Amino acid sequence: MSSQDFPSLMDWILMEENQKRGVIDRENAVGLFSGATFLGISQLRDDAYHFIQNHVEEGDPAILQMYEEARDRHSSELVSLLASKLAGLFPKIYKSRQFLRMSPRELILVLSADNIVIKRWGSVQPSSFPLPQNGIK
Fold it and tell me: Does residue 135 sit in helix, strand or coil?
């Protein structure tokens, strides 16, 4: 758990039950999940997981940062969840070569998502041979 996430953890612990979920946001969800897992705080762990599952939309640019943070923290459960949400950012991941830092398992998770849309094949595969340019899905 990072020093930036610790105040959020303390806020979550000290708040009334009905206000606890308001502490979790995109910036601290992965850190709180990781800290809660380490400390054995199952309710916070579940709240952070559900926040990511329900409030972080596919294609949200924050997913990539959250994914990398979860991977760096060796949180396989969050890596799987976030990888499935990364499909909307696949063209960006490819263009920035970030897929090169993914493990084969992580890359397979992203590529196996049903909602990867490639609007123009040339944007993913440089034209070494002619391909149809009419919206491959």
Answer: coil
Phi, psi of 16 (to 5 degrees): -65, 155
- DSSP letter assigned to residue 4: T
Count of CB atoms situated within 10 Å of the CB of 119: 13
Predicted TM-score of the model (pTM): 0.68
Q: Which two tokens stand for residue 123?
A: 């944007």
Residues 102-118: tens digit of each pLDDT: 777 777 766 766 655 55
For 83-103, letters b (16+ CB in 10 Å) and e give bbbbbbbbeebeeeeeeeebe
23 and 12 Cβ atoms separated by less than 8 Å: yes
| The pLDDT value given to residue 135 | 55
Residue 21 has pLDDT above 90, yes or no: no
